[in-house]
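Section 5.1 Outputs to date
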Amino acid sequence: MRLTVRVLGPIEVHLPSGIHPVRGCKPVSLLTTLLSQANRSVSLDRLVAALWDAEPPRSAVANIRTYVQILRDLLRGSSVRLERESGGYLLRVTEADCDHLSFAQLVTEAYAETAGPRRTIELLERALQLWRGAEAAAGVPRHGAVGTWLNALDEQRLRAVERIAEARVAVGEPDRAVRDLDDLLAVAPLRSRAWWLKILAHHRLGEHDLALAGYRSAASVFRDELGIEPDPELTELYRSLLKWEPVAIGGEATRPAEVTPIRPTSGPAASPPAGDTIPTHDAAPAGDTIPTDDAAPTGDARPVGGAPPGRPGRQYRLVVATPRPEWYPIVHRVPEPPALVGRNEVLAELRAALLTPHRGSGARVEVVHGPPGVGTSALAQRAAHDLADAYPDGQLYLDLRGWPSGGRAGTSPIQAVLRRLSVAQSPEDVLEAGDLLRTASTGRRLLLLADNVSTPAEVRPLLSLATGCCLLITCGYPLGVIPAAQRLALRPLGVADSAELLRGMLGRERGGEELDHLAVLCGGLPLALRIAAARLIDQPTLPAAALINRLRDDRRALGELEVDDLSLRSRLVGVLRTLGAEARGAFPRLAERGEFALADAARRLGASEATTEAVLDELVRTHLMVFTQHGRYRMPRFARLLAEELRARPRYPMLAGPSSA
């Protein structure tokens, strides 16, 4: 296997013996600098300036020789050569050796005039598959010429995503283009071309409400972030859509999807059936007129901006059933989530699910579930923020942990939602409240995030949301009794992603095996990882090695994973409170290292195997127990530590009241 030096993501060296990360900040920076000038000599002066942004040490040249030897040892036996040149060094590589050179070649071929849209998609898909993250040379300090080069690589990736989206629209795949652009705009919201393509893709899909809402979202971003109006091309596209004009892309005109006529071309004027409207989220209040270029005789119905091209004589009109109410919900009521690491694929899957047209009646229901501390709330909040333009009539947020303490006394979740929709009087009867919620949400695209749900009873009344709305639920288990729900399971992070999350919080300079050890001890749970990082930030005198030793100690581990209002122990206790009395009482008595059989558990509880199996099923469902592939049971470490605490302290104080975390 040819060696490959990979820079499109964390720096890695691929050898026949496996993948080898480059250890040490300076050797990584040296390799990155040489890669930026591949097959060209780099002087010692430039290398010194690249490795030391401030005043270099007197031993800088000697240090570089040491780093060169480290890289040569790493590259030994490969086709890559690190050669000494007069006054400097040269990294001799080919396109097959480096992913960034392969990426550049594929992009060049894709952008050639002879490449049609299908060929462009094929080449750019191969090019983007070379990337292992959103950032080239992740973790390498960006300053000087190397920083400029890495920023240029990142920009090339973003442009490739935009180009492939443009090609997808041109070949009739606008739905895939929307998904690609949603991911892009989540990390780079100021890219005008991406907004242009996203709006156009919605337009091609016939989602005219989302196209117009996309322009409003783009305008808001540019005004809030830069204090400027949107790009003139964006504004021109918006005006073209309002006038129902075709938009050129890829050598052809993109026409709007067909709209059902509501008045015949001849004969007596026919009134549309009740409720037969052409919905829009950019509608004017009832009674307002929409100006067109040509005045129409009074009483004639016509499309916005004239009849659609190619359909002469067919009459259309925009029907606005009701004006927007004064209580119009505020977008982005959802809390700002922390930065996500290692969740790109599952986040893209969740966005795609929330954007897929719902075929049935009623609201779309999506349940994100996973063990305590795995980050279901952060993922759902991130998806809700990213999809604000898809639900332009508002986003509402309910944190149901410890409810009703999280809401007003004597208020149910559905009453809280009605109050936020400015419904003056919400009935006590749940069925009446459900009817009122359906009425208040009809004709709108609302997203309601019900966070930290414990039982189905908390969210059943919220299923009354009308068609076009979305109910996004986070829970510790899949809520199988909720009908017609789509479900997404969230797993703990791997060691590499866990270490990356820690590095992002602690600073890019922190690295090495310590973060890997800390990641393993936190079990890949983002909550535990964030607590550990916060401990190290708040206590600069606490070495990472000392925290690692504390977390290894079963007697101290749970106590160490608490900081301010974050507590893994409290999160576990909150799950335990939702269990039935029998399972809650059996939990401490089942604490044991390693795996055990059903018969062993039955003996320990002094119960029949049937009764014991029912208890174990409840613990497995809530992730306080794991059913292994060998047909045995195992208690996860942090759950076991809580069970041991409960066994030692039967009157556990945290079980007396609601969870604080």
